[in-house]
Amino acid sequence: MNLLGTQPQASIEECAAPGLNRERGQRQVFCGLAGIVWLHRKIQDAFFLVVGSRTCAHLLQSAAGVMIFAEPRFATAILQERDLAGLADCNQELDRVAAEVLQRRPDIRTLFLVGSCPSEVIKLDLAKAAERLSEVYRGRVRVLEYSASGLETTFTQGEDACLRSLVPELPLLPSGERSLLVVGTLPDVVEDQFARLFAELGVGRLNFLPPRQASELPPVGSGTSFLLAQPFLGETARALQARGANRLSAPYPFGVEGTLGWLRSGAAVWEVSDARFEEVTAPAVARAERGLNRHREVLAGKRISFLPDSQLEIPIARFLQRECGMELVEVATPFLDRRLMEAELAWLPADLRLTEGQDVEQQLDRLRSDRPDICVCGLGLANPLEAEGLRTKWSIELVFTPIQGFDQAGDLAELFARPLVREALLRV
User: Fold this and answer.
1) Cis preceding linkage at 315, omega within 30
2) 115, 51 in Cβ contact below 8 A?
C-alpha cells in the first residue's frame, strides 16, 4: 500500500404510488467515495483513509479538485498487485499507513477506514482493523470503518454508511431529558439558519449529526426526536431508532413548502403554537418567495425528467412541480424507501411516471422520445445528452450546493433555470 494525498442496499418497501415502475439493469452512478468530499469538509477533526485502488484515488482527487489549495483530510491507501494477489499482509501495511497519517496529522481525532470495491473483493476485514487500531490509539484517536463500495449502491449512500458508523459512538441522553436531532450533512450556513429558526421557535436542546467536530458527538436516547435533512439516510435512521430515538415524519426542507412542513414537524414536539410558528417563519417565507419569483417565469410550464442518481430526485421534483410550475415527465430514483418518502409521495401528481432503479438504455430511449426541456442526470451521461440537444443538470451539484431552507429556495430554483437561460442566450 502507498499513501496518496457498502454498504448493504437500502431496504425497499412496497410502494402503492400509481405508475410505479421498477427497473433492474445497467446503472450509471458514482460510488459512495464521493461522499468523502463533503463529509471531510463538514467534520473538521476527522480523516478519511480509503483502502482502494488508484482509480479510487483519482476519483477523489478529481472530485475534490476545488480544494487544491488546502491540505485535504482524506487519502487513499493504494492496494498494489501484491496486495490483490495475497502476497503481502494488507493489515500490516494498513497499520503502517495509518501510523503515517496520524503522525503527519496530530490534530485528527477520528480516523475513518473507508472500504472500496477492491478491498471488498479481496475480503479485507476493515471492521477488525478498526478494532485493532482503536486499541493501539485508545485515548488519542477513535477509529471507525464503513464501506463506500459502488458495487451495489449509489454515491449518496456513502454518507449514510458513514453516519451509521457514528451512531454506536453517540453518548446516551440522560433519562428524562429530551432533544431534537437534525440528521444529514448540511453546509454551515444552512445549519446556522436552522439553529436560529428552532431557537426562535423555542425548541430546546438541538443537535446536528454529523457535528462539526467528531469529538463532540450529540447524545441520543428515548427522549430524542430526529429529523432527516437528507432523504438518503435510511440505515442511519434505523440505527438511531434502535437506540430509542423517534423519527419525525416530514417532507424534506427544499423550497418553502418542504421547509415549512419540516420545521413544523420539529416544532410540534415542543408544542409550539400556530401563532408563534407563523410569526417566526413569516419573514423567511417572504424572502424565499421573492427569491423564487425571479425564476418562476423561466421554469413555469417547462418539462423535466430525472434519471436516478442522488436519491434527491423525489423531493426536488416535488419542489419544482408545486412551487415552480414545472411539468414532471419522469422521476426516477435509485432506491425508494416508502417510510422515508411518505410525506413527499403524498404531494406528487397521481399520474406521475415514477421509476425505481435503472436500466440505462431503456431510460435513455424514453428520454429521447420525451424530449423534456431539461433532464437531471449523472456526470457520465450529461455530455452525451447535451450533444444530442438535451439540456441537462448534474445531480451531484444538488449535493454540493446549499439548497435546504428558506433562504436557499431561490438558489435551488436558479440551478434549474440557469441551463434554460443559457440556451435562450445561445439562440440569440
Assistant:
1) no
2) yes
Encoded amino acid at 224, one letter: T
Give the chain's domains with CATH numbers. 31-153 (3.40.50.1980), 179-276 (3.40.50.1980), 287-427 (3.40.50.1980)
9, pLDDT greater than 60: no
pTM here is: 0.90
Where does residue 301 fall: left (phi above 0), alpha (psi -120 to 50 degrees), or beta otherwise?
Answer: left
CB of 286 within 8 A of CB of 312? no
Q: How far apart are CA 379 and CA 398, in angstroms?
A: 12
What's the CA gap between 97 and 102, in Å, rounded?
Answer: 9
Q: How many CA atoms lie within 13 A of 117 on its CB side?
A: 16
Expressed in angstroms, the distance from the first to the final Cα of the chain is: 55
**142-147 sheet: strands from edge to edge:** 2-4, 74-78, 46-52, 110-115, 142-147
91 CB neighbour count, 10 Å cutoff:
15
Render pLDDT for 29-55 as a digit per residue (tens, 0 to 9): 778 888 888 999 899 999 999 988 778
Q: How far apart are CA 6 and CA 303, in angstroms?
A: 35
d(CA 395, CA 375): 9
pLDDT grade for 61, boundaries at 50, 70 and 90: confident
User: Averaged over 235-255, what is the pLDDT?
Assistant: 97
* Whether 311 contacts 396, CB under 8 Å: no
Buried b (16+ CB within 10 A) or exposed e, 72-87: bbbbbbbbeeebeeee
What Å distances lie between residue 333 and 20, 38, 54, 115, CA to CA? 11, 21, 29, 24
CA distances, 23 to each of 28, 40, 275 (Å)? 13, 33, 46
The per-residue b/e assignment along 181-217, b for 16 or more CB within 10 angstroms, e otherwise, is bbbbbbbeebbebbeebbeebebeebbbbbbeebeeb
Q: Mind listing the pLDDT tens digit for each residue in 284-334? A: 999 999 999 999 999 999 999 999 999 999 999 999 999 999 999 999 999
Instruction: Report pLDDT for 65.
Output: 59
DSSP conformation letters of 278-312: HHHHHHHHHHHHHHHHHHHHHHTT-EEEE-SSSS-
